[in-house]
């Protein structure tokens, strides 16, 4: 929901940083993989309850995630790079939640399972719509900078990173925060399935 407002704010500094990286021969895929590795290191830190250190790495992962796209747009974004980016993003999101489950299984495991379950709903609707949108040449004007077309919702990238920040700053409230966000994700998935079905159905009906 917030991505369409945050994206225009963060794109200019990301573009400047990406230009600097390009001058040194850094490729978007290298940035993607580096950011993913940084994000994965946060998982054991969370498991051992080093929440502030983990938060630094989580933010680092998100910065690299923005940089790889900005760097790709300085040339011609590749489908392979887009695939790598979105796949590693979903692994990162679920991995961070798993880190909190490992930190306190008794208190956090059930809420973590519910949250990852809700992520499956948002992720499946995201990717399924992207495939059909490409097939029917549908687009979302709010997110022209994305490699894959997708439907917006109440829970997007900005909301998710804000949630992770709250997790790290308020780890004792993980169950409440996770369950609350899971409810938002489930509503988002429901809206995406409904609106996506309607959009694709209309495109099929208009097709010759």
Biggest sheet character? none
CATH C-level category: Mainly Alpha
Mean pLDDT rating: 86
Tell the overall outline: flat
Strand residue content: under 5%
User: Structural class, please?
Assistant: mainly alpha
User: Helix fraction?
Assistant: over 70%
- The CATH architecture designation is Up-down Bundle
Evaluate the radius of gyration.
18 Å
- Which topology does CATH recognise? Four Helix Bundle (Hemerythrin (Met), subunit A)
Tally of discrete structural domains: 1
* Overall strand count: 0
> End-to-end distance, in Å?
34 Å
What low-confidence regions span 5 or more consecutive residues with pLDDT below 50? 141-151
Q: What is the CATH H-level superfamily?
A: CDP-alcohol phosphotransferase transmembrane (TM) domain
Q: Number of helical segments?
A: 7
SSE pattern: HHHHHHH
């Amino acid at each position: 929901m917030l991505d369409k407002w945050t994206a225009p704010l963060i794109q200019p500094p990301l573009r400047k940083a990406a230009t600097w990286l390009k001058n040194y021969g850094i490729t978007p895929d290298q940035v993607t993989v580096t950011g993913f590795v940084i994000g994965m290191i946060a998982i054991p830190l969370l498991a051992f309850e080093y929440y502030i250190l983990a938060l630094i790495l989580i933010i680092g992962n998100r910065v690299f995630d923005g940089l790889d796209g900005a760097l790709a747009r300085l040339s011609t974004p590749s489908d392979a790079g887009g695939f790598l980016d979105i796949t590693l993003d979903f692994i990162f999101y679920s991995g961070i939640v798993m880190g909190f489950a490992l930190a306190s299984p008794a208190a956090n495991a059930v809420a973590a399972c519910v949250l990852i379950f809700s992520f499956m709903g948002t992720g499946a609707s995201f990717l399924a719509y992207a495939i059909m949108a490409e097939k029917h040449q549908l687009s979302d004007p709010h997110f022209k900078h994305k490699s894959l077309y997708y439907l917006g919702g109440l829970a997007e990238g900005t909301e998710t990173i804000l949630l992770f920040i709250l997790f790290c700053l308020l780890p004792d409230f993980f169950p409440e925060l996770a369950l609350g966000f899971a409810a938002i994700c489930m509503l988002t998935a429901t809206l995406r399935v409904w609106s996506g079905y309607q959009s694709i159905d209309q495109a099929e009906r208009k097709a010759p």
